[in-house]
Design a protein that fits this description.
45% of the residues lie in helices and 19% in strands. It is built from 13 helices and eleven strands. The protein has a six-stranded mixed sheet with strand order 2-1-3-10-4-11, sandwiched between helices. Helix 2 links the parallel strand 1 and strand 2. The longest helix has 25 residues.
Length: 328
Amino acid sequence: MTPIRRNFRIIGAGVLALASVVSHAQSTTRDPTHPIRLVIGTASGGLMDVPARILAEYLDRSGGERLIIENRPGAGGNPAAELVAKAPPDGYTLGQIQLGNVAINPYIYKNMPFDPINDLVPVAPLTSSPLLVVVNSKLAVNDLKDFIALAKRDPGKINNGSAGIGTVPHLGAQMFEQLSGAPLTHVHYRGVGPAVIDLVGGQVQVVFAGLGAVRGQMESGSVKALAVAQRSRLKSAPSIPTADEAGLPGYEFTTWFGVVAPKGTPAPIVEALAARIHAAQRDPEVQKRLAVAGMEVLEETPAQFGARIRNDYERFRDIVKAAGLKPE
């Protein structure tokens, strides 16, 4: 081989190596001026919108990326999550999901359009929101023990208003029945809002819902919370006892909202996005606004969030089975 030809081969190899380095750098960096699309599987104005819009406003005022929220309601959020799962893995299309998308839907939808464990990359959870056991204030009970005793004394007389079959409020009520032995008659609504309206009106006697869905009614005195389904009291409503304190040990049911990316999104991009979310979560104004909505910051690394998703996916298999739900 002549020296000239050998040099050309060396130069060509060097160009290919440089191209590989540049390509890798481009795949793991993002243009901060490029807007990020955050897809949410519920209608605008719902509870899932709250943390997303607070995050978007924080990024805007802190000079970060511009976050464009895209609401795609329907089919339990599956189409929205599928859109994210099949989007380019470049960090510009993300999804905000909730516990139900990855831990409940796989067991109640026969043909899931995506694999919640393998097709979505965990970025960071945003908030947690435990269920409250909420009753009409006119119901003749003073605490959770009284309520359980009443439900046992008059089987079939206590109506529970849920947000629909297979939803978090529905399964929270099912778990309550299993642990307490108190029978409830389930009345399903198209969302927790209509259920709360009928709770105030007396058509149903109990609703299992997050603080954000009932705070106004609690403040007006039309409903009262008997317990919060987590190990610690809510910082924004410390007077509500935990289920353990109220007499139902082990009753824990907390949902969460979190951000995911498409499969194949490079780790540096995921880490950078998680860092921006964590910065928002540590902002006092963000924490204050989330607390008003009955939510608490849930800060975890991508790996920790992934473990949470996998654990909930396994845990809810038995919960859904015990509720008698089958894929449709």
